[in-house]
Specification:
The chain has 204 residues and is mainly alpha-helical. The protein folds into 2 domains: 11-132; 134-203, no CATH class. Helices cover 63% and strands 0% of the residues. The protein has helices at residues 15-25, 37-49, 53-67, 71-81, 84-89, 94-103, 105-109, 119-126, 136-148, 153-161, 171-181, 187-203. This is BACK domain-containing protein.
C-alpha cells in the first residue's frame, strides 16, 4: 500500500483559494469570505482533486447562484465551467449554467466578453432546445460574431456549425450564411464545409 505524501504543493493555486480550503478543513467561520472568480475556479478544482465532495457541492451551488444574478457573472461562470480542468473533471453545475445562458442568450451575445466563452460551452448552449432566439438565423449571426474572436477560428467554426439546426434555415438564410462566411478567416473553407453539411443533411 502506498504512503500518503506529507506535503502537497499548492503553489500553483490562488492564495485566497488555498487559504479558504485550509479554513474549511479547520471548520473556520467563512461566511464573510469574498473570492474572485479566479480563486473560486481554483477552489473548485482543489475540492475536486482532493475528493472533498461536500465542499465541491457547495461551491457548485454558489457558482450557479452567482451565474443567475448578472450577465457579467454568467459569462465568468461559463468560462469557469468551460475550462479544461472543469470539462475533464465533469463539473455537475455546467448544464445548469448552460441552461441559464440559453435563457439569457440575447444578453450574453451583447456582452463585451462574449468571445471568451469556451467553444464547447458555446456549442452546447446554442444547441439547446430552450435557446432564447426567434429564428435559427439569429443563432448563426451570433456564431459568426463569436467566431471572429476565436484564435482557432476554423476548428471553432466546425464545432459551432455542427450544432446549427439546418432544418430551421430557409433557402434564403443558407445563401446569406454562405456569403457571410466568406468574410471570416478561412472563410472559403468554412463556406465549403457549411455547404457540405447542408448537402449531407438533405441527402439523409
Amino acid at each position: 500500500m502506498g504512503r500518503l505524501p506529507k506535503y502537497i504543493n499548492l503553489s500553483a493555486y490562488d492564495g485566497h483559494a488555498v487559504k479558504t480550503l485550509v479554513g474549511y478543513i479547520q471548520n473556520d467561520d467563512q461566511r464573510s469570505i469574498t473570492l474572485s472568480f479566479y480563486a473560486l475556479a481554483d477552489l473548485i478544482d482543489l475540492s475536486r482533486s482532493l475528493l472533498m465532495l461536500g465542499l465541491l457541492e457547495q461551491l457548485e451551488h454558489i457558482l450557479v447562484e452567482i451565474a443567475s444574478q448578472k450577465t457579467d457573472y454568467l459569462i465568468q461562470a461559463l468560462i469557469i465551467v468551460g475550462s479544461e480542468r472543469s470539462i475533464f473533471g465533469g463539473i455537475t453545475a455546467r448544464q445548469k449554467i448552460e441552461r441559464i445562458a440559453a435563457t439569457k442568450f440575447q444578453d450574453i451575445v451583447q456582452h463585451k466578453l462574449f468571445g471568451h466563452i469556451p467553444p464547447i460551452i458555446f456549442a452546447n448552449v446554442i444547441s439547446r432546445c430552450d435557446l432564447n432566439v426567434e429564428k435559427e438565423i439569429n443563432v448563426v449571426d451570433a456564431a459568426i460574431v463569436w467566431i471572429w474572436q476565436q484564435e482557432k477560428s476554423l476548428i471553432s467554426s466546425a464545432l459551432v456549425f455542427s450544432r446549427i439546426r439546418s432544418a430551421f434555415l430557409s433557402h434564403g438564410d443558407r445563401n446569406s450564411i454562405r456569403e457571410r462566411l466568406r468574410t471570416l478567416p478561412n472563410g472559403e473553407k468554412l463556406r465549403i464545409s457549411f455547404s457540405f453539411k447542408l448537402f449531407f443533411f438533405f441527402v439523409i
